[in-house]
Specification:
Chain A: One of its GO terms (biological process) is negative regulation of oxidative phosphorylation. The complex is a heterodimer. By secondary structure, chain A is mostly helical. Chain A is built from 3 helices and no strands. Helix content of chain A is 72%, strand content 0%. In chain A, α1 packs parallel to α3. Chain B is 28% helix and 26% strand. Classes of the chains: A mainly alpha, B alpha/beta.
Chain lengths: 88, 254
């Protein structure tokens, strides 16, 4: 019996996998953790709980995007605006 | 007023990759190295997309010059929200000698052809660090330029640009059509997510040859030698102040 939320979970997994390609510690490291995190909740069947978990996944995507942006911004700042005081 | 913005993007070696010089000192190793869009170009794309979202302009067109692979970069820009792309096809061999002057000639020709209202570029690419393309494009078109933009406001047929200059900011108001170059603090570029990349595959990328634009790509520059920056010397620990003073005297610092 396929859960109606299955599609959403698969989509989330794919999106996370895509975002994880740029992970500073490497895509492999990220993939392993990602799989673990999903496997940990494989027995969850309550639709409400699944929705909460999917929401959390989407939040993680947002966090990762912010992390990448900051990392890039900081590197650029260090490289090209080195002598200015670091703005928080 | 065409309401069209032309954005130039460049595919460069990813900022996080350690650059290696080729053993024959003719350039840097690019094969098998991760490439991505130049961070300053991302900022330029974001600014154009933001203008479109505010309905200040009608269309965002991204341009990139280079071999087949630059289509990836164009695709990323389309995923960020640009409407269509133009790929100016330059074979890998010629691409090596493609400098800011040649690119600005291409951009100027395209800006005229597309009747662009604005041309937005990154202020510089992190590979060549030339910081010339925007300025030269403006010169070739004889358009006003707003370089190192940290804030851009469209006001009818004028554009107000806050520029980052040494030790402060400068606000200028210029007529459109104009050329703008994006500085680091202009905005925070959005991430090209997987769903958006997929959607961007439906958007069109036109293929153009430099010859169609009547642009001559011969370069007058010759790269003599590419070297890595000198290695930093290791420091030494000293036991006493006298040792320190002695060492400094030895090095001729005091």
């Amino acid at each position: 019996m396929a859960n109606p939320l299955r599609g959403e979970v698969v989509k989330l997994y794919k999106n996370l996998l895509y975002v994880g390609r740029e992970y500073p510690k490497g895509a492999t490291y990220f993939r392993e953790r990602l799989k673990c995190a999903f496997m940990k909740n494989k027995d969850v069947t309550d639709p409400e709980k699944i929705s909460t978990l999917v929401k959390r996944g989407n939040f993680v995507i947002k966090e990762l995007e912010a992390l990448y942006f900051l990392r890039k911004y900081r590197t650029m700042k260090q490289r090209y605006y080195g002598d200015e005081p670091v703005k928080k | 007023m065409s309401g069209r913005v032309l954005v130039g993007v460049k595919r460069v070696i990813d900022y996080a990759v350690k650059i290696r010089v080729k053993p024959d000192h003719s350039g840097v190793v690019t094969e098998g190295v991760k490439h991505s869009m130049n961070p300053f170009c991302e900022i330029a794309v974001e600014e154009a997309v933001k203008m479109k979202e505010k309905k200040l302009i009608k269309e965002v067109v991204v341009v990139s010059c280079g071999p087949q692979q630059v289509q990836e970069t164009i695709r990323t820009a389309l995923a960020m929200g640009a409407d269509r792309g133009i790929h100016v096809e330059v074979p890998a061999k010629e691409y090596e000698s493609l400098g800011p002057l040649q690119v600005s000639k291409i951009l100027a020709a395209l800006a005229k052809k597309e009747e662009a209202q604005l041309v937005i570029l990154g202020k510089q690419a992190i590979d060549g660090d030339c910081n010339q393309t925007g300025q030269m494009t403006a010169a070739l078109l004889d358009w006003p330029q707003g370089t190192f933009a940290s804030e851009v406001t469209l006001e009818g047929d004028k554009v107000k640009v806050v520029r980052e200059i040494d030790g402060g900011l400068e606000t200028i108001k210029i007529n459109t059509p104009a050329v703008l170059t994006a500085d680091l603090r202009l905005n925070t570029p959005r991430y090209a997510t997987l769903p958006n990349i997929m959607k961007a595959k439906k958007k069109k990328i036109a293929n153009v040859k430099p010859a169609d634009l009547g642009v001559d790509l011969t370069s007058r520059l010759e790269v003599l030698r590419v070297d890595e920056p000198p290695q930093r010397q290791a420091g030494v620990k000293v036991e006493t102040v006298d040792d320190l003073v002695g060492k400094l005297r030895e090095a001729g610092r005091i």
